[in-house]
Design the sequence.
């Protein structure tokens, strides 16, 4: 069987939320998030070059496919994360911790 494709996602908009206030728009740079993320489905890794020049690299612990979406999940450093990618390429990344959450909107394409 052929290896699953790699994806390239452009992060476009981020919101940070905490229990004491509403969600607020934040810049990717303020959150030290990469502008682009590589998703290696065969290697089960998500990587990206952050604003501070460090490389983010995390393991995909779970993958699930429906008729029109791909869901990826993992956890790292006390946070749980998920990525939901539609067949259209529209995607939502979320990261949750006990004290808040971040939602990131993205557009993904085959690499």
Sequence:
């Amino acid at each position: 069987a052929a290896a699953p494709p790699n994806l390239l996602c452009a992060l476009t908009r981020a919101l940070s939320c905490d229990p004491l206030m509403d969600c607020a728009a934040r810049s990717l740079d303020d959150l030290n998030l990469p502008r682009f993320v590589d998703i290696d489905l065969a290697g089960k890794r998500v990587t990206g070059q952050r604003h501070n020049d460090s490389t983010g690299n995390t393991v995909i612990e779970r993958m699930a496919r429906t008729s029109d979406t791909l869901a990826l999940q993992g956890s790292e450093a006390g946070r749980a994360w998920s990525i939901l990618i539609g067949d259209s390429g529209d995607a939502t990344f979320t990261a949750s911790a006990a004290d808040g959450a971040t939602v990131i909107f993205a557009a993904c394409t085959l690499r």
Summary: The CA atoms of residues 37 and 48 lie 5 Å apart. The beta strands are 6-18, 21-26, 36-40, 45-49, 55-59, 62-65, 69-76, 79-86, 90-97, 100-110. The mean pLDDT is 92.
